């Protein structure tokens, strides 16, 4: 046995064992993960699951006995560029995955965002497992879908300490239930994933962006809807009001609202679609093109919500709101009227809103929930002090039927509530 703090942990297979320091368990392979969960279940202990901890501050401020740190489970185990498939252990840094894919002209098309700077942490710390567990994605969600749509296979251990596999290495895998979809967005509360397989896609040869300046929120949403429904095949549509746009390239010199539309692909196609898009946007002003380098910088800033990640903003509550695109301005207006100093960024053609509010004891939760109830959608409190996250609903409250289903799913995978109990919903 090895000890740490007030707990005692089992030792495994000589040098391959669960390492424990100050209540942190660091398994070295999937056998150790299963053994650690088995021990925790037997001892009645709860485990927080993390990779590099870049999204650790999101969720309810629940208390767990120990941390199961999966960062040592790293490395690509299979990569077949010609088959557009990659498998890796969950602790593999996303930066390593991106570099490997870039060497072969490929990428993760769902464009996962980097939450760490929003939460005051260092950039580029995310792991592949963390991205899938939180179903992270970026502006290309419009065209490519979310992380769950590229999640092909998984090896994991449930809260029962039972190891299982689901999916495979091809998109059309229909063997059994598609547990990948269930685990994506479960925030580590159903199972500890150890290895995952994802679909990769060719990286666009060139990127072009057209921007319109000075549009109101309501007009910008109409312009984005027109662009998204056009033959131009935009892979990004975002609107940043004037109060925020000065923090984004290339708007720093304009100090005006910016509405951006991204096109990706081979140069001849992008050129033709740019002309098509310009014609579609003619009713909303004269769109201006920006070059490839400026375009990539702009969309990375939109992806990572950079204006709300600056040091002086990190103490302010931040909400992530998903709704029907045309409802965005209605929600923003209602929240802005109720909350002082509210600032908004629109992504996904208005379907995703990042709303930063002034510091308060409830993070503006009553106003946000009222607006969502009136317009439809769901909201997640991404950033707030632990005391606030302990007192308000962080994830969208569930109706009784959905809450009952959530409890049944949790009980199926983790009946003793070993894995992250209470992180998403109280008592689950």
- For this structure, the CATH topology of the largest domain is Uridine Diphospho-n-acetylenolpyruvylglucosamine Reductase, domain 3
Please outline the major beta sheet: 5 strands, antiparallel
Strand content: 15-25%
Number of helices: 13
CATH architecture of the largest domain: 2-Layer Sandwich
- Order of neighbouring strands in the sheet with most strands: 7-8-12-10-11
Number of domains: 4
Strands, total number: 21
Helix proportion: 25-40%
**What is the overall pLDDT average?**
92
Q: Termini distance?
A: 31 Å
What is the molecular shape? globular
Which stretches are low in confidence, meaning pLDDT under 50 for 5 or more residues running? 1-7, 12-21
Helix-strand category: alpha+beta
Radius of gyration, whole Å: 22 Å
What's the assembly state of these chains? single chain
**Overall CATH class of the largest domain:** Alpha Beta
Summarize the structure.
With 428 residues, this protein is an alpha+beta fold. It has helices at residues 30-43, 94-103, 128-133, 141-144, 179-183, 217-228, 242-245, 267-280, 292-303, 328-338, 365-375, 386-389, 400-413; strands at 2-4, 7-9, 19-21, 24-26, 47-50, 66-69, 76-80, 85-89, 106-107, 151-158, 163-167, 191-199, 201-202, 206-213, 236-240, 258-265, 288-290, 318-322, 343-347, 352-356, 378-383. A hairpin with a 4-residue loop joins strand 19 (343-347) and strand 20.
Please provide a written account of the structure.
The chain has 428 residues and is α+β, with helices and mostly antiparallel strands. 28% of the residues lie in helices and 24% in strands. It has four domains: 2-69, no CATH class; 76-202, Uridine Diphospho-n-acetylenolpyruvylglucosamine Reductase, domain 3, CATH 3.30.465.10; 206-304, Alpha-Beta Plaits (2-Layer Sandwich), CATH 3.30.70.2190; 307-389, Lrp/AsnC effector binding domain/regulation of amino acid metabolism (RAM) domain (Alpha-Beta Plaits, 2-Layer Sandwich). The strands form six sheets. A five-stranded antiparallel sheet has the order 7-8-12-10-11. The chain has a four-stranded mixed sheet with strand order 3-4-6-5, with helices on one face. The protein has a four-stranded antiparallel sheet with strand order 15-16-14-17, with helices on both faces. A hairpin with a 4-residue loop joins strand 10 (151-158) and strand 11 (163-167). Helix 10 packs antiparallel against helix 11.
